[in-house]
Amino acid sequence: MRTKLHGALSPLISLDRKSAKPFHRQIYDSFRAMILRRALQPGQQVPSSRSLAAELGISRIPVLGAYDQLLAEGYFESRAGAGTFVSSFLPDEALAARPGENGGRAKPGPVVISKLSRSLPVEWATWARGPGAFSVGQMAYEHFPLRVWSDLVRRRVRKVRASSMNYADPMGSKKFREVLTAYLRTARAVDCEASQIMVVNGSQQALDLCARVLLDPGSPVWVEEPGYDLMQQALMLSGCRRIPVSVDDEGLNVTAGIKRCRNARAAFVTPSHQYPLGATMSVSRRLQLLDWAHRHSAWIVEDDYDSEYRYESMPIASLQGLDHGGRVIYIGTFSKTLFPALRIGYMVIPLSLVDRFAAVRHASDFCSSQFHQAVLADFIEEGHFARHIRKTRLLYAERRSALVQAIHNVFGEQMQILGAEAGLHLVVTLPDGLSDVEISARVARQGFWLWPLSPCYMGTKARHGFILGFGSTAAADMPLLVKRMQKVISA
User: Fold this and answer.
1) 240, 227, 233: which is closest to 271 by C-alpha?
2) What are the residues whose beta carbons fall under 8 Å from the beta carbon of 17, sequence distance 6 or more?
3) What class is the 23-103 domain?
4) Which of 467, 459, 468, 466 lies closest to 224 in space, CA to CA?
């Protein structure tokens, strides 16, 4: 399907006034070349002869001559009362004959890119290509208070001023950061002031900024094993040396990390709900991690991506709230509590680093959209966010319980369930001898999304299993879906 541009955009035509070639021929050649290389698409409107002549600063006569020739040869078509358009019926062989050496296609040169960019995958894994049952990162979008949100958006639209169209503070809207400060102090026990908060385009940008500010190529960094793959990719782009540190029921094993690399520059952790295994870092481990960071002048990056959702206890207080030495960078996001297309995340930065983060942010991205920050500030301040969290916490608890019960009913003791106490996903392990990647790739072709566990490991001793998202699946559908999962595994 071809996308058509409505309205006549002026094409980029450059006339050489010193050339012996007449203007009408230069205009004809330019249009023909743009059509053949598909810069102008079939059905796209071209400017009127009068407007193009004015644009080029020449008489209308050469433009009319070029248009007549293009119409005669079938490159243009005229529609009564509408204007002149690129022909909708150009043959494929004509479009294939693009200008190039000897009338054919130009040969592409070698693709030279950086070593760091070559380390990243160029496409999503087959099991991560669509929303649906068990797909990770999906939520109950149908339960989002869309009417309330739309009303707030309309109210803010009516208040838009010309001054809001300029570049803004790279730290984010002052009003939104003040509202966010009150929320984080109350709900997450984060110790912060509004001046320490930077608003970013999702938590992934926050991870990238941390890597840019804190790390040099070759810097040793602790990462959780297994861990979040997109966190790994952000660190790969920095060129740092990733040190995998094992995770157990108490979270990151700090003693193991010290044995592997005592002088690491930083530790990237998910202490409230470890991704993907779901462990909560114990208080003793948190204090041990903070002690290590203070002793070795290291940094801790706390990714608190979905801590609002706990089902068997109150939300766990942040690691940052225990830190009295300014060694923790705290990251949060609204992608899991509201919706990912919002692209609003935030960082709480130690005062000693605020200027550095602001400078790097300004050099790479200037600032985030102020409009949606204003809408979200209203959404939080008027109590809609707290009501939405209470409602969805009950909803996700029901869906999680239905999934756990269905797994027990279908698999019995064959599968171990990990991390079901919090968040929007849980992990199930596979019996020895089965490949989670092989099964995931096979069933993805059937539109069934089972995210494999083993790719979250850097080492060779990876556990095989599946990361099952339950946020977007109704509780009543869980038994049938788990039976389907059992069939594809046994196949």
Assistant:
1) 227
2) none
3) mainly alpha
4) 459
Residue with the two structure tokens 């026990």: 189
Higher pLDDT, 258 or 39: 258
Residue 202 has pLDDT above 70, yes or no: yes
Task: Note whether 208 and 239 are within 8 A (CB).
Answer: no
Q: Which amino acid is at 136?
A: V
C-alpha dihedral (271, 274, 280, 281), degrees to nearest 10? -40
Ordered by start, the domain boundaries in the chain are: 23-103, 126-136+387-490, 145-382
Percent of the chain with pLDDT over 90: 67
Q: What are phi and psi of 288, to 5 degrees?
A: -65, -40
* Structure confidence by residue, pLDDT tens digits, 102-120: 445 556 677 788 888 887 7
- Does residue 204 carry a pLDDT above 80? yes
- Selected from 3.90.79.10, 3.50.50.60, 2.40.50.140, 3.40.640.10, the CATH number assigned to the domain covering 145-382 reads 3.40.640.10
Rounded to 5 degrees, what angle do the CA atoms 207, 384, 374 make?
Answer: 55
Contact 290, 269 (CB under 8 A): no
**pLDDT tens digits for range 431-462:** 888 999 999 988 887 778 889 999 999 987 89
Supply the DSSP string of 248-283, one letter for each residue. Answer: ETTEE-HHHHHHH-TT-SEEEE--SS-TTT-----H
Judge contact between 224 and 243, C-beta under 8 A: no
Nearest residue to 300 via CA among 272, 271, 277, 274 = 271
Structural element, H or E, at residue 320: none
Phi, psi of 108 (to 5 degrees): -70, 145
Q: Hey, do 23-103 and 126-136+387-490 end up sharing a CATH topology, with the first three levels equal?
A: no
DSSP letters for 79-112:
ETTTEEEE-TT--HHHHH--S-GGGSPPPP----
Q: Are 254 and 287 in contact (CB under 8 A)?
A: no
Q: What is the chain's length?
A: 491
Q: CB 331: neighbour CB atoms within 10 A? A: 28
Q: CA-to-CA distance for 389 and 395, rounded, in angstroms?
A: 10
365-400 pLDDT tens trace = 888 889 999 999 999 999 999 999 999 999 999 999
CATH topology of domain 126-136+387-490: Aspartate Aminotransferase, domain 1 (3.90.1150)
